[in-house]
Amino acid sequence: MATQTQSAMESKSNADVAQKIQKLREAFADAPQMAKTALESKIQDLASHMSEPRSRMESAGRTGSRQGKVSELTLMLTFAPGGARRLRALLQAQNGNFDDADKVGTVHDMRFVFLDNDTKLVFATAYDGNWDPYIDDFATKIPDVMDIAFSAFEGWPGIHSPEVKNWIAKHQVTAEGWFVANPNLTVTETRRLEKIGKAVDELLDKVA
User: Fold this and answer.
1) Which of 31, 59, 168, 205 is deepest in the core (most CB within 10 A)?
2) How far does CA 28 lie from the centroid of its chain?
3) Are residues 48 and 67 in the same domain?
4) What does the pLDDT read at residue 9?
5) Based on the domain organization, do 85 and 166 belong to the same domain?
6) Mean pLDDT of 144-166
7) Where is this region: Disordered (predicted)?
8) Is a pLDDT exceeding 50 seen at residue 6?
9) How confident is the model at residue 1 (pLDDT cuts 50, 70, 90)?
10) 131-141 and 143-150 are packed helices; what angle lies between their axes, rounded to 10 degrees?
11) Does the residue 197 lie in any domain?
């Protein structure tokens, strides 16, 4: 019985992969010939990745995607009058120092990208866990930082506003594709491994 169930699951998986490959070929029907040729040379690799993915993109909760323990958040925001000037001054003053983000404890990275003559901004970050706890952590651990930075944008209600999560979700765009090198390592686990690696290197240096 178990063998029959496994065979049925494998058959369904193969059919799903075949369907995805067919849709991919259809999507590239009007692509340049070089793209079609390249696609066909990668079809087997793509099929293998589809049938046995290293990690799957899942929901991070209210919005956004998660792979393993790591989630993504990308905001498309419009600057309020004077907002771009204030935020740029803040970021330049910090010079890449975001110790406040460490207080949250789950932030892998953050990017602030100014666009369209300083009228818009893309804010992108990767973090551990699900969406709601992540936003709650910012509200409870670094509320002043949030209001200083995000007051640069139109409609920011304030981190303590009951509408703040709705505002964030309204401006968030979920990634269609996203690569995570270590989807099963949290920030804490990564730092622990870094310390262990450093200690091992120091030990080996002493032995040598």
Assistant:
1) 168
2) 27
3) no
4) 46
5) yes
6) 97
7) 48-68
8) yes
9) low
10) 100
11) no
